[in-house]
Amino acid sequence: MSSKAGARYAKSLIDLSKEQNAVEEVKSDMLFFEEVVGANSELEAILKNPIVPLDKKQGILEGIFAGKIHAISASFLKLVVAKGRSSILFDTAKQFVQQYNEIKGIVTANVVSATELTEANRTEVIALVKKELGANEVLLKEKVDANLIGGFILKVGDKQFDASIASSLNKLKKEFAN
């Protein structure tokens, strides 16, 4: 679930980090923030809980991230919490990385295959996605699902290409049923 506010905050943070020539550092910070909060549901619950005092949230974030993130990122976290918008920080971090990737032409491709991909398969999928979408870089997220029997399913954004044997068998079943 992404919010419009999260997207706006992320855009503002990208603009600010561009002005300060710290886009790469802030992107690393947002990935780090996303990883920490994503791995700690209690932290996410605290950030989203309106009952927890703002200074308490501020103290927790400073305790975790002080000295580990760029000054721009630290100031940003502090500002968002001070404005009482800490509930959208996790979403803002995700939105920042997504907007960064769009600017840089980086595409995430999710591949679900029946068996683990070989290096040749990976290279082929990356080349195909780059060619079809004009991407500069492709981040490949792989998952193995033996239920596919063979082949693969490739998802990039809202596009999906299904070349699995299980899918083909289902199509055949439907055709025979008709």
Describe the structure.
- The chain has 178 residues and is of the alpha+beta class.
- The chain folds into 2 domains: 4-102, Peroxidase, domain 1, CATH 1.10.520; 105-177.
- Helix content is 61%, strand content 16%.
- The longest helix has 17 residues, at 23-39.
- The chain is elongated, with a radius of gyration of 21 Å.
- It starts with a helix and ends with a helix.
Enumerate the strands of the largest sheet in spatial order, edge to edge or round the barrel.
2-1-3-4
**H/E order of the elements?**
HHHHHHEHEEEH
Structural class, by secondary structure, is alpha+beta
Number of helices: 8
Sheet with the most strands, sense and barrel status: 4 strands, mixed
* Mean pLDDT metric: 90
Runs with pLDDT <50, length 5+?
Answer: none
- Provide the helix percentage: 55-70%
Q: Class of the largest domain in CATH?
A: Mainly Alpha
> Total domains, how many?
2
Q: Please compute the radius of gyration using only Cα atoms.
A: 21 Å
Fold blueprint:
Blueprint: H1 4-19, H2 23-39, H3 41-48, H4 54-65, H5 71-82, H6 89-104, E1 106-113, H7 119-133, E2 137-144, E3 151-156, E4 159-164, H8 165-177
Parallel strand pairs: 1-2
Antiparallel strand pairs: 1-3, 3-4
Helix pairs in contact: 1-6, 2-6, 4-5
